[in-house]
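Teaching soon. Got one?

===
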Amino acid sequence: MTEQIRRNLETVRGRIAAACKEAGRDPMEVEIMAVTKQVEPLRIVEAWNLGVKIFGENRVQELNWKIEAINFQIKWNMIGQLQKNKVKYVINTVSLIQSLDRISLAEEINRQAKRLGKTMDVLVQVNIGKEPQKAGIAPEEALPFIETVAREYDSLRIEGMMAIAPDVGEEEARPYFAAMRRLFVEAGTLRMDRVRMRCLSMGMSGDYGAAVLEGATMVRLGSAIFGERETR
């Protein structure tokens, strides 16, 4: 299994390097996150040993089980839709929450972070395709949302944005990624405390090459690293 993950990572890194060369970017600007949904701890450790240093989980219960199973500290992000009543279970175990998409969730993250005397880093999730089945702030509402969060919740720090492009094919997804990049750059001009705009998380196993071409600083890869998951 280690050898398969190694080969997959070589492919991923080569593809990121090629996209960066085409876009005139430094490959070091792009972080690889391994998405660990339905991936057992042993394979997560194998990916870590092969140089992947950031891991993302969709589900709180699965995240906490894996944290317990892996007996050393790795860097976890929460990437799935987060319910308010689950915030207390991740606030002290993840370095970044990538799925902030509503004020009520900001309130709860802020409350739990304040209770612990910490500042929680978050990404604002944008529904760039305006798809009704997906979570996220509408693009035209993203900047006002960021301004409100930065102004009213002093235990949150907005590190950037996250988006999932519509499943339309890699080349067809490029306009959505380009729109996210423009929004990301515009948000960076707000010059507000606790708004840093360092991370543009977009691109998954089926379209990460296009995302890198359009400016992603983090790609979220599951099957591209670990292979296809078993359906449940």
